[in-house]
């Protein structure tokens, strides 16, 4: 190995060789992807990529969600269509008194109360104790919940099935084929018991928990003309219907995704010293959605 | 000049960002290819880095740090791409490298193959450090700024990366020697 004793010089030469120019096709593909991608707003306090380690540790955040399309209960009447079909049993609204009606893109600190939110014309409430950040994400919403007691748990699902093709369909493994005549939207909320030991929030849509609503094709374009699915680009690991685990881009993060073929993505970014437990990961991986 | 473009892009000017992307794409790709040793995956990583950069650009506080920040995004995209390969490549069998069918007398080629195998033995983070240092010519302090780590940490990691590369080459030489003995 004498010939490699000068390891620095050897590496200089070795790494000098190689392609220097990206293909025009690849560059154009990147530019096209950029064209489809909205920018995030500066005011959003949570940052995915540029968080400092201190912030990560302090926030111990777990994030999630995504979804495209969406629609819910109150929107259908506004659009002049028939009443939606609910497939879950109505549950009474949260018993706690509403604290405040907050717009999106706000950071809220809750003691123990119910927040009423208007999401694309759909009344949504979040009840619990914690620190919530509501962030617009395309046609859907990111809800980041930080549980103060356990310092970090968030699990949320905003699900839409059968969304008409979007310009960013390739980023979300959207099922190929013609757009369906109706879309089905869900919002569910899961309890992250392995980490938190309890649910950190209860979410209801239009006063009901776990709603399913059929909406007409084109609703997305009507309700949120500027919405796209591009926010899911960063979850580009999604492939087929396979579930898999991967650490996030931050070294102390892990992302879990599943059921991507149905347009469902659950992501957990855990910015803490320890990764989510294997038990939680396994639990998430075994979740199957749908009516 | 670039600062103006960055600031325009931060305000949502896609054309300005397009200019920035075009002028950086070659270098991003070249760096990614050297880390990942694969053209297709390097292109994917470059795209991922550019898309994330566009999305997150409004949050970049110092426009003068754009290039370092973009490189950091690229390195992270390469890490993700490398992990993805690992996740999805579980069924890919690693075959022994038998060398070219026709013996190549070129010492240069042999050395290069040896280096290639040795480099591929390194984890992505060590490859990235070596590429930033030996290909981009970044000093440890600049690497630290790019990767968002302490300067001392960068120096230490670079030292370990060099050591790992040396060890990888030695391991490769040993396995080659064993293979030759087995074949004879």
Residues in helix, % of chain A: 10-25%
Q: Tell me the Rg of chain A in angstroms.
A: 21 Å
Helix content of chain B: over 70%
The ordered H/E elements of chain B are HHHHHHHH
**Largest sheet descriptor of chain B:** none
Taking all Cα atoms into account, the compactness measure Rg of chain B is 19 Å
Average pLDDT of chain A works out at: 44
Instruction: Give the largest interface.
Output: A-B, 48 and 54 residues
**Mean pLDDT across residues of chain B:** 80
Number of strands of chain A: 10
Instruction: Please tally the helical runs of chain A, counting DSSP H or I stretches of 4 or more residues.
Output: 7
Residues in β-strands, percent of chain A: 25-35%
The main β sheet of chain A shows up as:
5 strands, mixed
Give the overall form of chain B. elongated
Portion in strands of chain B: under 5%
Secondary structural class of chain B: mainly alpha
Total of DSSP H or I helical runs spanning 4+ residues of chain B? 8
The H/E string of chain A reads HHHHEEEEEEHEEHEEH
* Cα end-to-end separation of chain B: 64 Å
Unreliable spans of chain A are 42-110, 133-200, 209-221, 223-277, 279-291
């Amino acid at each position: 190995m004498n010939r490699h004793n000068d390891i620095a010089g050897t590496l200089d030469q070795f790494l000098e060789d190689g392609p220097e120019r990206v293909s025009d096709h690849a560059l154009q593909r990147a530019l096209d992807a950029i064209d489809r991608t909205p920018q995030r707003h500066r005011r959003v306090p949570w940052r995915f990529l540029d968080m400092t380690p201190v912030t990560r540790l302090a926030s111990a955040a777990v994030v999630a969600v995504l979804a495209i399309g969406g629609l819910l209960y109150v929107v259908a009447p506004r659009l002049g269509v028939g009443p939606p079909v609910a497939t879950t049993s109505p549950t009474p609204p949260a018993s706690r008194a509403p604290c405040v009606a907050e717009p999106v893109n706000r950071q809220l600190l809750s003691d123990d109360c119910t927040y009423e939110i208007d999401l694309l014309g759909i009344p949504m409430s979040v009840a619990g104790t914690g620190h919530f950040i509501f962030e617009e994400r395309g046609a859907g919403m990111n809800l980041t919940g930080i549980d103060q007691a356990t310092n970090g748990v968030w699990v949320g699902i905003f699900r839409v099935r059968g969304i008409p093709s979007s310009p960013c369909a390739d980023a979300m493994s959207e099922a190929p084929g013609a757009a369906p005549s109706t879309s089905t939207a869900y919002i569910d909320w899961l309890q992250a018991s392995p980490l938190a030991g309890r649910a950190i929030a209860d979410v209801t849509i239009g006063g009901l928990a776990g709603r399913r609503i059929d909406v007409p094709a084109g609703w997305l374009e009507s309700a949120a003309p500027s919405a796209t699915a591009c926010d899911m680009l960063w979850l580009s690991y999604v492939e087929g219907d396979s579930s898999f685990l991967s650490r996030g881009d931050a070294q102390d993060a892990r992302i879990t995704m599943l059921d991507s073929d149905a347009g469902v993505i659950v992501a957990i970014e855990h910015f803490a010293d320890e990764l989510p437990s294997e038990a939680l990961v396994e639990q998430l991986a075994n979740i199957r959605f749908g009516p | 000049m670039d600062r103006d473009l960055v600031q325009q892009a931060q305000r949502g000017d896609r054309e300005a960002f397009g200019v920035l992307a075009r002028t950086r794409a070659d270098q991003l790709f070249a760096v990614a290819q050297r880390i990942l040793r694969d053209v297709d995956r390097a292109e994917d990583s470059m795209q991922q880095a550019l898309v994330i950069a566009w999305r997150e650009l409004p949050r970049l506080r110092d426009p003068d740090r754009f290039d370092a920040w973009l490189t950091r995004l690229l390195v992270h995209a390469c890490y993700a791409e490398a992990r993805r390969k690992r996740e999805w490549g579980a069924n890919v069998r690693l075959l022994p490298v038998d060398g070219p069918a026709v013996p190549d007398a070129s010492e240069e080629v042999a050395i290069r193959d040896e280096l290639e195998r040795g480099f591929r033995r390194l984890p992505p983070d060590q490859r990235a450090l070596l590429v930033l240092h030996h290909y981009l010519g970044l000093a440890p302090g600049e690497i630290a700024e790019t990767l968002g780590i302490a300067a001392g940490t960068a120096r230490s990691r670079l030292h370990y990366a060099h050591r790992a590369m040396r060890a990888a080459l030695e391991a490769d030489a040993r396995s080659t020697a064993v293979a030759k003995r087995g074949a004879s």
